[in-house]
Specification:
single chain, about 100 residues, mainly alpha, 4 helices
């Protein structure tokens, strides 16, 4: 849902604001997950977090591509994206 809604949201807000919005939606979803008291609330919170994650994932690669130096190749760009998406547990091949 988040990645598909980026078609309209990304056009209106731009990349930087879309990433900020996705992060805020993920924070709200994380707070709801932390404070959930039953299964239904946890399910709704996971959906909200997924929408925010979809906004971020579908926007960050394009934003990183614009921001990185011309000297960096695409493999390095994908490594940075992979690290930011998996900040809690980065894969071994990136380290």
């Amino acid at each position: 849902m988040g990645a598909l809604s980026n078609l309209w949201i990304g056009d209106k807000l731009g990349r930087r604001r879309t990433i900020i919005l996705g992060g805020l939606v993920m924070i709200i979803g994380a707070i709801l997950q932390t404070t959930s008291v039953n299964y239904a609330m946890m399910l709704v919170a996971r959906i909200i977090t997924g929408v925010g994650n979809g906004l971020n994932v579908s926007t960050m690669i394009q934003f990183f591509h614009r921001c990185v130096l011309k000297k960096m190749n695409c493999a390095r760009l994908l490594q940075y994206h992979h690290i930011t998406q998996n900040a809690r547990q980065p894969p071994n091949e990136v380290l």
